[in-house]
């Protein structure tokens, strides 16, 4: 039973208060047709809104089935309107952008009814009101009577206890009004209908009870409940309350799908505005997306360059590491610096001092590559080590290179070395003065002939001069690393697979420079000589070769250990290459190399790792070392580590570590091994050395007896003889010297002069003495030499080899493969390089500081700097463009606020059927999210389309074919998400405004 107890309703009006209801008390039966009559403004609609829970009473109580509503919260009222009340309005209040079926389904949606049941019940309700064939029409396509019947169907679809009708026939003609009233009378048989009307005739004809209201007070009730009825109904209500105690009543909730559906339908009714709004919102997204695309394209391009750089410039660890970072920084700072002095004079900037200081302070470290190589191999053998995945290749290099020869087309055996051939070519066509001019005008015949040519070839060796290069090996003994096969296309033949196979590298045009062709033996020496002389190539000169001709070229490796043969006459090993016959013998018996294929750099690769023109496998070095281990020359050198088997002279490096006693012993042995003439020469050399202390005493005595004028006069005469300068200039120069400088210079000249005079006098005196007497004198003198004299005479008499023991073994091809000269680590990607560096750091943490590995990653420093700059520029640009994104979000918020105003009645309808404030807020939030999603999608799609011409422009401007504007999919999804988030935030205020609207006021809006 529905019961109103002393209901009062006041409205504030300016400074006063309007009393709409003044203590109204009514009891309604569970099923009856009640009409409320009264003039306009009497309070009857207010009474209806209070009964329906749309408006709240000021005082009193509304009892619903025995339950007071004084403690009702908003969600309780929402549940009451959804489950217990159905509204029929004078103006129908249908949602215009929804179909008839969807309008009726809406209340069921809030009740949580399944989709299938919801559809069936809505169709059934429409069938009851005679609209079973009008399910998919929109309200605008129907007549007034039909729309009112839709409203009635919506009111009864949830099977409510109460139907509230506010002037249901006020906008209908007579015939239609009768049809609607008949329908309501039929419904009133099993439920309560409360109708507000101005038409007494309709009320008399169809109502079972009429209540009249005037000025907020009930003036008449045609059929009030008797005391017995009232008591019975209250008892029944109490029983139902007890029965339902503890049962949780489900609160009505609008699903997310419904919220989005309502918003989407509304947006479709305003396609033009929605499209323009979404496009306007997408402008900021387009700006940011384009910046990200170009930035990502640049980053991808840099990553490709980085990975190519990792192939061309691996992480190289040298046995001797020189850290040039401080020197590079000094060069960069030469023209940049702050000063703490004024600008009133010219001051010195210590550029040379800083450079010299940087050179002297270079950090030079010796790396123990033997131990480090063992550590790396253990890491590679460990299946759980991340080093295996981070590394695409590892290369050990050594101090030997294959000595390759070939027979030229004119039959001449040449060393296939472009540097040596270029040097010989320059020497043959230029005299020493020309070479001196070419090298910058320095040096004469002595300095320009050799060093000048060497400097030129060194300068050119970075380009076409680099001919032979070792290939990066693969895993498990593979001759070629997959990194090479990705970077280079095989255009003929096959990749090398063994130590005696090589591959030729051509440029992108399948060309080789003429110097390389000369070193390959394909161009005769006569033709190269003509080219060097500046003459045109002969008309019949060959300019192209087939792949088959290239692959049939004969190359031979002369093993360094085979070059030296023992000479029984001298007891030394001689180089057979010094004679043509010896070179031909070596060539005929040398290791033949087979050209198995021709490769060319892949056009998509920016920088390949191969800089040479002919590449051999790492197995060739292993073969050379293996053969050197069987060489007699190597065995002889290892048997005598103190003596050079090529010159017979001792190694100086060993002499530096000898004690005085050892030096005496070796010098005695050396002298004993000489013949008489040799011993005599040793005696003359020793005796020609004056006593340095005696020379110093004589010089000091002479200086003590000479005045400044005498020293100046004598020194001037000596300098005039030594220098091609006039006497007047020498005199002026000497006169300007201080006393200290004058005496120092004069004493040095006197010491040299006296030493030379002494040696000359001794040589002249001993020249008349027979060698036998000199030998006897030497033997007698040797018995009296002190250890210091033996050590001094050892350095004076002994002759040493210019080489070292280690250098000789390397020259003979004998090296320790476990102790490389350098280790090149090729990271799989630029990110993997961090793992490689971590492996080095882990190794360093296990050894002492002296044995730690040091290196400098110059490429990494450069690339990281470039990447940081691009990132910084990207962030700045995004910050500027983000302003437009914020502005567009605010615009969307304003448009959403307009939409709230336009949909005010829809808000009232939803609240009337049980939608909560939260449901209304979510519905408008859904609308902003849809707009944000549309903006994001439009922005991303437009960006993808714009990336095509932008990439073309970047190709044209930079010439880089793989530099493209690319928007990654994750970034696109993030941008769409950002667009949705910003529009959601911008719609929070409008959505809250919508939720706070009074449903009664909202239903009255137009």
Describe this structure in words.
- The chain has 1006 residues and is of the alpha+beta class.
- The chain has 41 helices and 25 strands.
- The protein is elongated, with a radius of gyration of 53 Å.
SS element count, helices: 41
Termini gap: 35 Å
Oligomer: single chain
Taking all residues together, what is the mean pLDDT? 84
Task: Return Rg in Å.
Answer: 53 Å
Q: Which class best fits the helix and strand makeup?
A: alpha+beta
> What characterizes the major β-sheet?
8 strands, mixed
| Contiguous runs where pLDDT drops below 50 for at least 5 residues | 439-464
Classify the beta-strand content into a percent band.
Answer: 5-15%
Shape: elongated
Per DSSP E runs of 2 or more residues, the count of β-strands stands at: 25
Helix content: 40-55%
Please provide a brief summary of the model:
With 1006 residues, this protein is of the alpha+beta class. It contains 41 helices and 25 strands. Strand 9 and strand 10 form a beta hairpin.
């Amino acid at each position: 039973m529905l019961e109103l107890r002393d209901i009062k309703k006041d409205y504030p009006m300016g400074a006063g208060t309007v009393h709409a209801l003044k203590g109204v008390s009514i009891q309604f039966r569970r099923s009856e047709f009640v009409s409320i009559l009264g003039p306009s403004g009497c309070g009857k609609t207010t009474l209806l809104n209070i009964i329906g829970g749309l408006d709240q009473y000021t005082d009193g109580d509304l009892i619903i089935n025995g339950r007071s509503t004084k403690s009702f919260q908003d969600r309780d009222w929402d549940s009451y309107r959804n489950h217990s009340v159905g509204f029929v309005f004078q103006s129908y209040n249908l949602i215009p952008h929804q179909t008839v079926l969807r309008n009726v389904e809406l209340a069921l949606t809030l009740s949580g009814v399944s989709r299938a049941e919801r559809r069936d019940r809505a169709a059934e309700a429409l069938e009851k009101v005679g609209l079973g064939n009008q399910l998919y029409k929109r309200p605008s396509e129907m007549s007034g009577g039909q729309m009112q019947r839709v409203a009635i169907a919506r009111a009864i679809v949830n099977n409510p206890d109460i139907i509230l009708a506010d002037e249901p026939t006020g906008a209908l003609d007579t015939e239609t009004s009768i049809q609607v009233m008949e329908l309501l009378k039929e419904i009133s048989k099993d439920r309560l209908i409360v109708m507000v009307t101005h038409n007494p005739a309709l009320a008399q004809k169809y109502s079972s009870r009429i209540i009249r209201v005037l000025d907020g007070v009930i003036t008449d009730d045609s059929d009030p409940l008797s005391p017995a009825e009232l008591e019975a109904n209250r008892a029944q209500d109490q029983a139902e309350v007890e029965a339902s105690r503890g049962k949780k009543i489900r609160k009505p909730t609008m699903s997310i799908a419904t919220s989005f559906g309502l918003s989407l339908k509304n947006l479709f009714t305003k396609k033009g505005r929605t499209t323009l709004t979404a496009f306007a919102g997408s402008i900021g997204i387009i700006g940011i997306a384009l910046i990200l695309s170009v930035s990502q394209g640049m980053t991808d391009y840099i990553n490709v360059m980085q990975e190519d750089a990792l192939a061309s410039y691996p992480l190289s660890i040298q046995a001797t590491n020189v850290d040039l970072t401080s020197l590079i920084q000094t060069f960069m700072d030469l023209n940049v610096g702050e000063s703490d002095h004024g600008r009133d004079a010219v001051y010195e900037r210590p550029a040379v001092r800083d450079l010299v200081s940087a050179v002297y302070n270079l950090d030079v470290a010796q790396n123990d590559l033997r131990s480090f190589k063992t550590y790396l191999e253990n890491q590679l053998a460990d299946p759980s080590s991340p080093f295996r995945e981070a590394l695409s290749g590892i290369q050990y290099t050594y101090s030997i290179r294959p000595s390759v020869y070939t027979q030229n087309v004119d039959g001449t055996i040449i060393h296939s070395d472009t540097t040596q051939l270029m040097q010989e070519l320059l020497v043959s066509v230029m005299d020493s003065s020309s070479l001196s001019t070419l090298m910058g005008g320095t040096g004469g015949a002595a300095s320009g002939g050799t060093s000048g040519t060497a400097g030129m070839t060194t300068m050119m060796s970075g380009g076409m001069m680099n001919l032979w290069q070792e290939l990066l090996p693969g895993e498990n003994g593979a001759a070629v690393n997959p990194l090479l096969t990705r970077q280079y296309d095989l255009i003929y033949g096959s990749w090398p697979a063994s130590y005696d196979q090589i591959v030729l590298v051509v440029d992108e045009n399948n060309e080789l420079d003429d110097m390389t062709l000369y070193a390959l033996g394909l161009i005769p020496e006569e033709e190269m000589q003509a080219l060097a002389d500046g003459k045109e190539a002969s008309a019949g000169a060959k300019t192209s070769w087939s792949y088959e001709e290239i692959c049939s070229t004969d190359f031979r490796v002369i093993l360094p250990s085979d070059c030296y043969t023992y000479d029984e006459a001298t007891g030394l090993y001689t180089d057979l290459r010094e004679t043509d016959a010896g070179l031909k013998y070596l060539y005929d018996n040398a290791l033949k190399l087979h050209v198995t294929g021709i490769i060319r750099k892949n056009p998509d690769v920016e920088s390949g790792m191969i800089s040479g023109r002919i590449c051999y496998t790492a197995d060739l070095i292993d073969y050379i070392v293996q053969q050197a281990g069987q060489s007699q020359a190597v065995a002889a050198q290892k048997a005598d580590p103190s003596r050079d088997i090529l010159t017979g002279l001792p190694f100086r490096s060993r002499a530096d570590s000898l004690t005085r006693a050892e030096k005496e012993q070796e010098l005695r042995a050396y002298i004993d091994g000489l013949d008489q003439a040799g011993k005599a020469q040793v005696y003359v050399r020793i005796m020609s050395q004056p006593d340095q202390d005696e020379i110093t005493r004589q010089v000091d005595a002479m200086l003590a007896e000479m005045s400044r004028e005498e020293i100046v006069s004598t020194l001037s005469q000596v300098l005039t003889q030594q220098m091609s300068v006039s006497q007047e200039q020498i005199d002026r120069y000497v006169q300007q010297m201080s006393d200290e400088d004058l005496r120092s210079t004069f004493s040095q000249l006197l010491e040299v002069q006296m030493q030379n005079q002494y040696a000359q006098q001794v040589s002249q005196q001993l020249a008349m003495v027979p060698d036998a007497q000199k030998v006897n004198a030497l033997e007698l003198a040797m018995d009296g030499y002190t250890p210091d004299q033996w050590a001094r005479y050892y350095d004076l008499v002994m002759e040493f080899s210019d080489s070292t023991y280690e250098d000789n073994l390397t020259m003979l091809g004998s090296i320790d493969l476990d102790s490389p000269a350098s280790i090149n680590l090729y990271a799989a990607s630029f990110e993997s390089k961090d793992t490689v560096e971590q492996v080095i750091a882990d190794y360093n943490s296990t050894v002492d500081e002296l044995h730690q590995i040091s290196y400098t990653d110059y490429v990494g420093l450069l690339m990281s700097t470039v990447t940081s700059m691009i990132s910084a520029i990207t962030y700045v640009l995004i910050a500027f463009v983000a302003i437009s994104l914020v502005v567009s979000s605010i615009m969307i918020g304003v448009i959403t606020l307009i939409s709230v105003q336009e949909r005010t009645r829809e808000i009232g309808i939803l609240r009337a059927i049980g939608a909560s404030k939260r449901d209304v807020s979510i519905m408008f939030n859904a609308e902003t999210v849809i707009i944000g999603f549309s903006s994001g999608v439009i922005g991303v799609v437009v960006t993808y389309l714009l990336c095509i011409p932008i990439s073309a422009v970047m190709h044209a401007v930079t010439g880089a074919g793989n530099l493209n504007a690319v928007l990654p999919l994750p970034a696109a999804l993030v941008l769409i998400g950002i667009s949705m988030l910003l529009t959601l935030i911008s719609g929070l205020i409008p959505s809250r405004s919508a939720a706070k609207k009074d449903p009664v006021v909202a239903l009255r809006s137009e």
